[in-house]
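Predicting holo structure, aspartic acid bound.
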Amino acid sequence: MSKILIIYTGGTIGMVESEDQQTLVPFDLKHILEKVPEMNKLGATLDSMSFEHPIDSSDMMPEHWTMIANQVQANYEDYDGFVILHGSDTLAYTASALSFMFEGLQKPVIITGSQLPIGMIRTDARENLITAVEFAIQKIKDEPVIQEVAVCFEDQLFRGNRTKKFSTEAFDAFISPNYPELALAGVNLNFNHQELFRSEKAAFHLTDGFDRRVAVLTFFPGITEQLVTTVLSNIELRGIALMTFGSGNLPQHDWLLKAIGEAVERGVVMVNVTQCAKGNVEQGKYETSTGLVEAGVVSCGDMTLEATLTKLMFLLGQSDDPQWVRDQMATNLKGELSIR
Ligand code: ASP
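Done. Tokens:
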């Protein structure tokens, strides 16, 4: 029998209506099998633990990613897989961050959440929880099928660092715009075996440390020089993601390239991530991005903003050498980036 540890961090999935039905209160995970009795039929031993103070995922900080990762590490040998219950709002950031923290992961770490609280009649929480556990217990020849950080929502399983929350409304709230789903849950669980991540390193270990001195600068037609230079000349910042148009383009102002060049010179890691959900940055394709290549801006290719930012914070947390961080940003570490 597979042993799965369920870790509740907070969010809608763990909420039930209070007795007077006036408010939503966190659900006591100890009673999970009473609320979702179908879980007993999954053929797995389920244990659960919870953040002492469950949080809305908008309050998630790198310290919370560390708490989750530490729980996985502390229990790694004792369980066949992990299911993390998380608010959906920043779930894609947590999934991305965890993927960079784990080295040599050979067990499933599946994150799920829901749009409606578990205690409500039409809830998607029960289905998501059951499906996440089902994905986590799948093995072939005693080996877990999933050996990476994945996101289960509705009937889909995605690579965690490829996901985005796409809808505030629909039950299938997440997308993986640039990478196929790892599996689909229909009548059967169908895995896309050729798309699954396999770690090259054998021993599992955890690397921690995020540097929060990063910023995202989203461009829009009409953005002022003052706003751009205020951000780019901020000497506190070690990393800046330029959120660009289309395949990585920016307006052709001399002052802009100059400000970018000066920031790069100062040792700031500047990366180019597109505002488009689907597709990738191709610096140099148009004249409007050639200057960025010359200025030393790193292309984020088809990485999501969530993967870009967590990767940047993670790498800056590991090294003081901006060139090393730039090289790693352009390297596919955990399946977050398609190398063309
Ligand atoms: N605001 C909630 C959260 O992210 C929404 C959810 O759980 O879906 O924690």
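The chain has a mean pLDDT of 94.
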